[in-house]
Design a protein that fits this description.
Structural class: alpha+beta
Radius of gyration: 16 Å
Low-confidence stretches: 1-21, 77-82
Number of strands: 11
Order of helices and strands: HHEEEEEEHHEEEEE
Mean pLDDT: 81
Length: about 220
C-alpha cells in the first residue's frame, strides 16, 4: 500500500501515548508548521473542537495530523455503548510522491487515500477496548486489530468498503466508508492537495461535511 510507515502512526493519528513525541507536535505550533491546509468539520457542526497531534518525518517536516470534534474520547472499557463518547476526528494527510528522506538514509512512501484510511482506522482502534478483554492482553489485541486495519486500508475497493458522497468545501466528494462494532471510518481526497480520513462514534457520518480550517488556533484550548 502506498502509505506512511506503520511505525509511529498511532501517535500521528492522535491516538496513542504521547511519550517520545516532541511537545511542539502536540500543540498548535506543530499545526502551524504545516505547508498544507488543515481540515475539520464544516460550520454546520457547533460543538467543541480540539487539537490532537501532528505527525512529522525524521527531518521535522509535518505530513499529517488530526483535529477532534465533540466529546474527547477516552479508553473506558467499562462504559456501555449508550455511554460512550460522541465524537468525530478528521485526519488530514498531505499529498506527496514516494521520495527520499531529508537525511538521505531512506525513503518515504507516497501518500494516498489509503494513507488516510489507515491513520483513521488505527486512530479509532486506540480508543476501543472490549469490556471482556483483560488489560494485560490489550496490547496484543490492538496489534492484531491495527494489522487488520492496515490490510483493509490497502484495498479500498474491497467488499468491506462502501462509498458515500459528503461535502468538502461545499462540493460533493466521494469517500470510501466502512462501519464496525467500534465505530466508523472513511477516507477520500480533496482538490486542495490533501487526503482526508475521519473516524468517529456516536455521530452519524452521513450528515457530516468538511472544510478548510481558516485558523487552526481556534481549535487550541
Amino acid at each position: 500500500m502506498e502509505t506512511t510507515s506503520r511505525a509511529g502512526t498511532r501517535d500521528a493519528a492522535g491516538s496513542a501515548k504521547a511519550g517520545g513525541v516532541p511537545a511542539a507536535l502536540r500543540t498548535v505550533e506543530g499545526y502551524l508548521r504545516a505547508p498544507f491546509p488543515w481540515y475539520g468539520l464544516d460550520g454546520a457542526f457547533n460543538g467543541p473542537r480540539w487539537l490532537m497531534q501532528v505527525g512529522a518525518t525524521a527531518d521535522g517536516a509535518v505530513r499529517h495530523g488530526a483535529t477532534g470534534h465533540g466529546e474527547e474520547p477516552s479508553i473506558r472499557p467499562e462504559a456501555s455503548a449508550a455511554h460512550r463518547e460522541r465524537f468525530a476526528v478528521v485526519v488530514t494527510v498531505a499529498t506527496s510522491p514516494e521520495r527520499r528522506t531529508g537525511d538521505g538514509t531512506g525513503h518515504l512512501d507516497a501518500t494516498t487515500a489509503s494513507s488516510a484510511a489507515w491513520l483513521a482506522g488505527s486512530g479509532l482502534l486506540a480508543f476501543t477496548w472490549p469490556p471482556q478483554l483483560d488489560h494485560a492482553l490489550r496490547d496484543n489485541w490492538l496489534d492484531q486489530q491495527t494489522e487488520a486495519a492496515f490490510e483493509l486500508a490497502d484495498d479500498l475497493e474491497g467488499p468491506e468498503w462502501t462509498t458515500l458522497s459528503l461535502p468538502v468545501d461545499a462540493e460533493p466528494t466521494p469517500f470510501h466508508y466502512r462501519e464496525s462494532e467500534f465505530g466508523w471510518v472513511l477516507a477520500g481526497s480533496t482538490r486542495r492537495g490533501v487526503h482526508l480520513g475521519a473516524y468517529g462514534r456516536g455521530m452519524s457520518p452521513y450528515g457530516l461535511g468538511f472544510s478548510v480550517i481558516e485558523d487552526i488556533r481556534t481549535y487550541a484550548p
